[in-house]
Structure formats: C-alpha cells, structure tokens
Amino acid sequence: MSKFGVHPYLNEDFAQFKFNLQSDLTGVFDWNTYDLFAFLTVEYESNDGRKTEVTVWDDIILRKNTKQHKIDYKNMQVEYLLSDKNKELRGKTVQVYFNVDHMPVVGFTQKQRVHVGNFTLPEEYLGSYSTKRY
C-alpha cells in the first residue's frame, strides 16, 4: 500500500497501491479482433451492502502492436486512485479483477473477467495524498 488516507480536496477515502500483472493475450487475437481494452478493477461491499467497483488501471492493446500482447508488470503503480466518497474503505477487503473487452471488426463486443486476488485495506489511514507519480 503506497498511500491510504483522506483526499484533501475531495474529502473522501483514497488508496494508492502497486500491483503485479502477467498475461499473454496473443491467443485472444484473431481476424475479427480490432483491439482489446484491458483494465484492472477492484470491488468491495459498502457498509449498506451495495457492491462498488472501481477501475484503477487500463490500457488499449492494439492487434498490430504484438509487443503489447504480453503483459508483464511488476510493482506497477495504479493509474487511478481507489476512492470512496462515503469514507468506508478502512478495513475493507477488496477483490481484484483483470478484465478484457474484445473490440471486434464486426459483431458484438465480448467481455472476459478473471479474479486475480484480494487484499484488505488498513484499519487506520497511512501516508497522505500527493500528486507525485511513483
């Protein structure tokens, strides 16, 4: 966990963290795949029982750029903060999902989603908000 606290401008809980992600998407591409939209989401249940889902990282993977087809991130900083306007993140266990939307040349968009792990946020705030990228 890089940072966890209350955002000074938005007055909401936020968490900044790093992740590891490995995936070989080569086999997903075929003649009808224009590109892929890959994204990492975290999900948690609010105090009133509602499911909340937040996107923390995303990327567009082009068919013609084969170097992008193999993802190998180590210690990658999230692109977007995990935040909660109701300040309910303390002590929450969050589920992490890797999602891929297949953008076809023709036809319907197909979606895949894989559970890749979970973690529990601290009971107490630590660190502070910074606009600095790590």
What does this protein structure show overall?
- The protein is mainly beta and 134 residues long.
- The chain has strands spanning 3-6, 13-16, 18-24, 33-45, 51-62, 70-77, 82-84, 93-104, 110-120.
- The strands form 3 sheets. Strands 5-4-8-9 form a 4-stranded antiparallel β-sheet, with no helix packed on it. A 3-stranded antiparallel β-sheet has the order 1-2-7, with no helix packed on it. A two-stranded antiparallel ribbon has the order 3-6.
- A hairpin with a 5-residue loop joins strand 4 (33-45) and strand 5.
List keywords for this structure.
single chain; 134 residues; mainly beta; four-stranded antiparallel beta sheet; three-stranded antiparallel beta sheet; 9 strands; elongated
- Main pleated sheet: 4 strands, antiparallel
Spatial strand order of the main sheet: 5-4-8-9
By secondary-structure content and strand pairing, the structural class works out as mainly beta
State the shape: elongated
User: What is the share of helical residues?
Assistant: under 10%
Reading the helices and strands in chain order gives: EEEEEEEEE
Quaternary state of this entry equals single chain
> How many DSSP H or I helices?
0
The beta-strand count equals 9
- Please, what is the average pLDDT? 92
**Strand residues, percent:** over 45%
Please tell me how large the radius of gyration is. 17 Å
What gap, in angstroms, lies between the N and C termini? 12 Å
Which stretches of 5+ consecutive residues score pLDDT under 50? none
